[in-house]
Amino acid sequence: MVIQRWQNLLLFIAIILVGLSIATPLASVCSNDSVSSTPIYVYSLPVLLILCSAIALLLVVALCRYKNLKQQKAITVMALVLLCTALIIGAIIIAVVIPGATPIWFGGLSLCVVAALCAALAYRFIRKDINLLRSYDRLR
Known about the structure:
Blueprint: H1 6-23, E1 25-30, E2 37-41, H2 46-64, H3 69-97, E3 101-103, H4 108-139
Antiparallel strand pairs: 1-2, 1-3
């Protein structure tokens, strides 16, 4: 299988980044003696785990729908909305729900930010391909 379009490569990178965000820690909580800190992972928070799994599944479906650009575009938009929702929920959990949590800057949330950027760029390339195909149809 050869990846011929940029949006497919970007969607693939976004899938990998969302998968990695599940396995990397979001934040760390210092214990009472403040010598050791306990990391908090996405898989220990069920809301974020379900959301990130749904995002990864949507991105896989969008990657597989490479022949139908309109469906690929719609699925990518849904994944982008869910990525933004996951980022907001993750920030709320770190800031409000878990007291004393310090975010890990190169952890799960930053990987989700990069995945959202990749998905947004993929959306841009999908839109560009749709416009190119429309222009070719006008020339016929």
